[in-house]
Amino acid sequence: MSDDVKAGVAAAKAALAGVPAEPGAPKQDAILTATGVRRAFGGLVAVDVAHIEVQRGAITALIGPNGAGKTTFFNLLTGFDRPSRGSWEFDGRRADRMRSYQVARSGMVRTFQLTKALSRMTVLENMLIGADRQRGERLWAAPFRWLWLKEEAQNAARALDLLERFKLADKRDHYAGELSGGQRKLLEMARALMLKPKMIMLDEPMAGVNPALKQSLLEHIKDLREEGMTVLFVEHDMDMVHEIADWVAVMAAGQLITEGTPDQISADQRVIDAYLGAHHDAAQH
Amino acid sequence: MRRALLLLSAALAGLSLCLGVSSSAAAQDAYGIHGTLDDQQDQPVEGVSITVSDASGAEIATVTTAADGTWAVPLDAEGDYVVTLDESTLPEGLVVRNCKPQLEVNVTGDRTALFPLDTQVDGCTPGESPGGGETPSSSEDESGEPGEESSESEDAAADDAAADEVGEIEGEGGATRAISLLVSGLHFGLMIALAAVGLSMVFGTTGLTNFAHGDLVTFGGVMALLFNVTFGLPVWIAAIAAVVLGAAFGWAQDWGLWSPLRRRGTGLVSMMIISIGVALLIRFATLFFVGGERQRYTEYVGQPPWDFGWLVISPKEVVTGLIALAVCVAVGLALVFTRLGKATRAVADNPSLAASTGIDVNKVVRLVWTIGGALAAMSGVFLSISDGVKFDMGQHLLLLVFAAVVLGGLGTAFGAFVGAMLIGVFVQMSTLVVAPELKYVGALAVLIIIMLTRPQGILGRRERIG
Amino acid sequence: MDWQFVFSQALTQAIGPTMLVYALGAIGLNLQFGYTGLLNFGQAAFAAMGAYGLALSVVAMGLPFWWGIVIGLLAACVMALLLGIPTLRLRADYLAIVTIAAAEIVRRIARATVWSDTTGGSDGMRGFSEPFFEMIPWDRDTTWSFLFVSMDNGRLAVDFGIFELQYSYRDTWVMIVGWTLVAVILVVMAFLIHSPWGRVLKGIREDEEAVRSLGKNVFAYKMQALVLGGIIGAIAGFVFALSRANVQPDAFTTDFTFYFYVVLILGGAARIFGPVLGAALFWFLYNILAQGLIQAISADVIPPSVIDSTQVGPLVFFLLGLGMVLLLIFRPQGLIGNRKELMFDVR
């Protein structure tokens, strides 16, 4: 593609070049720094991450076998679950006390493993609801159209641009429930972009997407990096991780066991053990 | 203490006042006061003299009750009137239960005035004059309001039972009363438990909050009434028949309604509202066939209680309580040790995982509905043996059943049992400090507080999000 | 059998004062349940807050009528906050159980003999509605006629030839006020729903987690919907109390709430006009069935051995309950709902 693409990748690669491949390695410019995050359900410790930093402007993959606590960690960081203890900072602000909507407003927007399209609303409505700090969403202003009509038109224009980019523009008036699984994933991503996030957290973006759409989804994720966004995503598919991730963090049994570039990770015995161990367990069930 | 006693006696008086509210639906435009005099077994009482006078005490009319127990005095104008029942004209052995042979009635249309008759007074001293400002038991006849259709009378079964018991031991030491209340609380708890276990298992396996479960309880009571009163069978046979029919009803409901709805993928909220519709259907069908009055079985009605000195309890309560306990234990053991029981718990834990391990989820759910129906029917029969059948008995029980299920943690049978026992004891014991008419309020307040502070219930695990 | 009478009666009730109570109560529910997905099973308690708030402040505290209205509305707000703050963060059915329990608590407290000096116990209260009826701008002896509408000694009559609607002096006033309220509330609702605010509510109904992930304070929106719906419920309570000139605790049972749901579902949830249409149809059907059956019994078309007049009420409610269940199963979108919109079940 163009030179821009190379610029984004190059910047991310350069920033991560000297970082040692060990868990909790410090980054040049971390947008997210978490320390001592622990979440226990009853006696079971689901997440116990000592330290992690996420490089700004890079695509970081979070991988690990089933039950490693990746989604729970995601939920904690985005305020959808409360940690037993731990603290983290996002973009220089303390984020562990924030509620989920405050986290989203501060610029860290997530998507879900099982897509959460608002089924009985149109695609365009789905997009418009994503726009942040709308005046017309305040109860006192809602009945007075002239207060928010202009803002609504601007949001609609932006929404249509995004839908165009995600090839959903011709579906704008369809109910979101009518879309295919892959289209819903695209819609969810497009909707998240309506918030103009600094960092986007994708929970298994490829799950349930047919192979034809996969490639275009990958391109979309790469584009996000070129626009200066930070991406953190959970994924199982190592091929995909190899193709787009600049950096990989590996979780197993709730802990961060290692970090590194995709090449370093594929060669790491601990990762292979973690996966194989998990597969052994799964086979016995 | 003095205040508590005062509250208690006032409330007891009020409680018995609630018992006789008319259910006639005929609207009349004329002014008047009328009523029907029944004894404790709902048999009409004839030849009792009733006098109506105006507020200044001038007599307007004196009438005697007819063969069907009815009486009526037409009036010319709105206003306050005093209705007096001449106790000397009552048949031998009958008294006005709340010691209020005189009622003040404010007439704005055609009003009913009712005197609860019984063989013994209840929480009051005979000859006591009507307390000032006390409201008489009267209700205005209205028609066409759905809100009223099902609410004429109040405070189902349990209140009756409690009133009887408290009445019996009135005047004795506080400790004795506490023991009696504890025992009746345990009994009531077991009755709630029978219903709660079924509700909880249905919730656990299907996620449905079944608002019709209380009416399955009524169904049991009504079916036993059918076999006992209409077919003339002994109560114990009628009880067995009712439980079998309850099981069949549960099975049929799942087969004909819930299972097809699940197959169609109907949402839980829609199903919840459908269950409300089903509840209304059962309730109004009962009202249609049985009527709005409390009906009693032909046996065990005036059973003489065992008096141990420290505890007065009727044999029927002991028997029904023990059977209920045995059934609850049996269900618990079955859940833990049998194959189907294990399958049930597996489905409650994670339906899709259970399905993938070869468990037939629909079969399990069908079984849960069948058992739930049987247990609810049993609860209904047992409650009715103590307190009679009324079309809205299950509706009043339902909220306590919810409270029990929530208290124990949604969806666990064992939790539901523990919750039910706690709620039963709490409801009865709370009458030591609050007015009995407010005892449900206490239980419901506990329900709300539990939901707020520990939504997973006292035994449940915190739910995992995401 | 006098079918003309039966039909006239049914039509009279289909737009009469009682229907307005149900329409208003269901409009409140529509905002909470239809648009936001909140399962408020205690709408009867909100109506009770309005009715008792008015009655208690006028009768027991001797305050002016308008203060009673303000207090009734405030009471509904306070109740919404009390119920909402703890439950709106929890799962949907928690709100359902808490509201149904709260409604039962309110009713039992209202009928308790302990406070019957103030509340009138199970007899309820009266004597608060005079100021309302003193506001009637025409006299009791007003008589006029215009086309097919006429007023005869303060009573309103609408004569369509085949059938005639008649309303008493007071009912006419209740209807004028009630329909004005319905119209105003519906207009405001329509503006609210078709705004970004309404869009957020619908989003919450579909999936509140998703809406939360988009930076919306879901809790605040749910609370706003609960309070607004509760206030509309309190207004229904005003109309209910004033149209009957009394309040009685046993009018506010859970069945009252359930019939709001029947009305809402009959008309179609998440439709602005759904509740009004549903209420009109509900009362039309109720009256045509009840009056028809009573007529049939008194004319010996149906022998008394099959059904007597005291069984008519239960039978009609049975049929309406059956209707609701069938409707939910076979036409869940209600009369004017959009089938397509309901095809994707979100839960």
Automatic annotation (TrEMBL), chain A:
GO CC annotation terms, alphabetical: plasma membrane
PROSITE patterns in the cross-refs: ABC_TRANSPORTER_1, ABC_TRANSPORTER_2
Membrane spanning residue stretches: none
Residues covered by the ABC transporter domain: 32-278
GO molecular function, one term: ATP binding
Keyword Nucleotide-binding: yes
Claim: Cell membrane is one of the keywords in the record: no
Keywords: ATP-binding, Nucleotide-binding, Transport
InterPro entries: AAA+_ATPase, ABC_AA/LPS_Transport, ABC_transporter-like_ATP-bd, ABC_transporter-like_CS, BCA_ABC_TP_C, P-loop_NTPase
Superkingdom of this protein's organism: Bacteria
Name of the protein described by the UniProt record: ABC transporter ATP-binding protein
UniProt source species: Glycomyces artemisiae
TrEMBL record, chain B:
Transmembrane segments: 185-204, 216-249, 269-290, 318-337, 367-385, 397-426, 438-454
Main localization category: membrane
Tree of life domain: Bacteria
Region annotation Disordered: where it falls in the sequence: 116-163
Subcellular location(s) per record: Cell membrane
Any Gene Ontology biological process: amino acid transport
Keywords: Amino-acid transport, Cell membrane, Membrane, Signal, Transmembrane, Transmembrane helix, Transport
Residues spanning the signal sequence: 1-27
Topology in membrane: Multi-pass membrane protein
Thylakoid keyword on record: no
InterPro entries given in the database record: ABC_transp_permease, BCAA_transport_permease, CarboxyPept-like_regulatory, Ig-like_fold
CDD domains documented for this protein: TM_PBP1_LivH_like
Record's GO cellular component terms: plasma membrane
Matching Gene3D superfamilies: Immunoglobulins
GO molecular function: transmembrane transporter activity
Any single Pfam family the record assigns to this protein: CarboxypepD_reg
Acidic residues bias locations: 139-163
Similarity comment text for this entry: Belongs to the binding-protein-dependent transport system permease family. LivHM subfamily.
Name of the protein this chain belongs to: Branched-chain amino acid transport system permease protein
Taxonomic classification: Bacteria, Bacillati, Actinomycetota, Actinomycetes, Glycomycetales
From TrEMBL, chain C:
Compartments (UniProt record): Cell membrane
Pfam families: BPD_transp_2
Membrane topology: Multi-pass membrane protein
One GO molecular-function entry: branched-chain amino acid transmembrane transporter activity
Domain of life of the source: Bacteria
Spans through the membrane: 6-31, 38-59, 65-85, 173-193, 225-244, 256-273, 311-330
GO CC annotations on file: plasma membrane
InterPro entries xref list: ABC_transp_permease, LivM-like
Keyword vocabulary terms for this entry: Cell membrane, Membrane, Transmembrane, Transmembrane helix
The UniProt record lists the keyword Transmembrane: yes
PANTHER family: HIGH-AFFINITY BRANCHED-CHAIN AMINO ACID TRANSPORT PROTEIN BRAE (PTHR30482:SF10), HIGH-AFFINITY BRANCHED-CHAIN AMINO ACID TRANSPORT SYSTEM PERMEASE (PTHR30482)
Protein name stated in the entry: Amino acid/amide ABC transporter membrane protein 2 (HAAT family)
Organism from which the protein derives: Glycomyces artemisiae
Lineage, opening ranks: Bacteria, Bacillati, Actinomycetota, Actinomycetes, Glycomycetales
